[in-house]
Specification:
There is one protein chain. By secondary structure, the protein is mostly helical. The chain has one domain (3-447). Helix content is 88%, strand content 0%. It has helices at 3-75, 81-108, 110-116, 124-136, 138-153, 157-181, 185-204, 206-209, 224-297, 301-328, 330-337, 343-356, 360-375, 379-392, 394-411, 413-447. Helix 1 (3-75) packs across helix 2. The protein is globular and about 65 Å long.
Length: 448
């Protein structure tokens, strides 16, 4: 492939997907802003207790979206359309079974689930109102995640990006209308958020109405072998999201013990800002994933290394600029969400932004290497990175650092976990390249 053409494809896909991924995170950030304006620190604390539910829903959606999308991309140019329809159908059916579980929890066990997340009497009603609505609309979130991932691999990244941006802009409008104008509280915030994926799906339906699609639903029995393959390829995305939810829940518990609901509200500012930052790196990863899968299918080793190199450089540049902006404007960022001018919240959140986001350059490299290994059909390598940065390092570091250094130690947990993971992921990459080079030398020596 021509280098200039490859570079053009790289920037087209990454930039579009950064915009799309950030757009997907905006609806949560919009809720945070308007809830802070309408309901203050208690509203922020209630929202942050509900964030792990988004992680679980997005985790399943991305597992089948990224896994199915990767499989779709690998076979896209070398198989008949019956196979691509089969991939989407199996991913869709799997998600519907998962959606049924979320629906049952939302209908029958939403109060118990709210208590499990740690809501006390002061914020229980607000948290429960938001949580129940999100659980009931979980099928829309799941199908939206799945379809966006497939459309990116089906030569329609622009339409997928437009759908996400427009739906999230509409969410902003509804947030203002429901929370500020009509004073509907947490129920209004949840309703605005839940309408967003429906708008996105309506826009993306044009891909099917005009028959641009090479995937879709087809009447066929489920293939457990294919579902297993999809899960294997998308498992690293699932682990990343679910780990994030578990970490948020554990952080909420530790922070409540140290500083109460005000600390959880401050963490809400940081966690929601982190969702946008993470979305940027996920955007780079999901952008280069179709390109890497295609190059892997064509056995284009030199081009594969070039895409990896550009991805790492772009990620590090964004990480450096992002942290600089976060450090310089941390007071302004916190002020946006501190509608009641709570001095304690302001102090805790500003310090948190300064320490917590030190993870950015390390996360950049971990995210790209995870996608790289997944694109090479090496899911164990990708899953290892996801597990290390998601839970294996985070959980023990959280308890050790928060006990020894209080809130400062708690904020440094994620940077320490990402740094430790980066060291191991780079070692895995170097070992893999050495092993691959030796295999190629033996192959060509045998031919001679």
């Amino acid at each position: 492939m021509n280098t200039n053409h490859l570079r053009r494809d790289f920037f087209k896909y990454t930039l579009l997907n950064i915009i799309s991924s950030v757009g997907m995170s905006i609806y949560i950030l919009a809720d945070t802003f308007f809830i802070a304006k309408g309901m203050g620190a208690d509203g922020l604390a209630a929202l942050n207790l509900c964030l792990p539910v988004f992680n679980f829903i997005n985790g399943f959606g991305l597992m089948f979206g990224m896994g199915g999308g990767s499989l779709f991309s690998i076979v896209y140019s070398s198989t008949n359309r019956n196979e691509t329809y089969k991939i989407y159908t199996n991913a869709f059916l799997s998600l519907m079974m998962i959606a049924a579980v979320f629906e049952i929890i939302g209908i029958f066990f939403s109060k118990q689930f709210t208590m499990l997340l740690g809501a006390d009497e002061k914020i229980f009603d607000m948290a429960h109102s938001y949580l129940k609505m999100v659980l009931l609309f979980s099928p829309a979130f799941l199908i939206n995640n799945l379809t966006v991932c497939f459309m990116r691999n089906d030569s329609a990244p622009k339409l997928a990006t437009f759908a996400m941006l427009f739906s999230n802009f509409y969410n902003l409008v509804l947030d203002y209308e429901f929370i500020i104008e009509k004073n509907m509280g947490m129920f209004g915030a949840a309703l605005a958020t839940c309408i967003s994926p429906l708008i996105s799906l309506i826009i993306m339906s044009f891909h099917f109405i005009f028959r641009w699609n090479t995937f879709g639903l087809k009447k066929m029995p489920p293939s457990w072998k294919m579902i297993k393959n999809i899960i294997s390829l998308g498992f690293h995305s699932f682990v990343t999201e679910i780990s994030g939810g578990i970490v948020i829940a554990l952080f909420n518990s530790a922070i409540y013990r140290l500083t109460g609901n005000t600390g959880i509200a401050a963490y809400g500012v940081i966690a929601n800002t982190a969702i946008v930052v993470t979305a940027i790196f996920n955007g780079i990863g999901t952008g280069v994933q179709p390109l890497m899968c295609k190059l892997h299918g064509e056995d284009s080793e030199r081009e594969m290394r070039a895409v990896l190199r550009w991805s790492v450089i772009l990620s590090l540049v964004i990480a450096g600029g992002g942290y600089s902006g976060m450090y310089l404007f941390r007071e302004l960022i916190v002020n946006l969400f501190n509608g009641n001018n709570d001095i304690q919240l302001q102090k805790i959140a500003e310090n948190g932004l300064k320490l917590y986001f030190l993870y950015m350059p390390f996360m950049a490299i971990n995210s790209i290497l995870s996608v790289y290994f997944n694109s090479r059909e090496l899911p164990v390598h990708a899953q290892t990175i996801s597990l290390l940065r998601g839970t294996i390092f985070v959980i023990p570091l959280l308890f050790v650092l928060s006990e020894s250094r209080g809130m400062d130690g708690l904020w440094l947990t994620i940077p320490a976990a990402e740094l430790s993971t980066m060291i191991i992921s780079v070692i895995i990459y170097i070992y893999y390249m050495i092993k691959r080079r030796r295999t190629m030398i033996r192959y060509f020596s045998g031919r001679w």
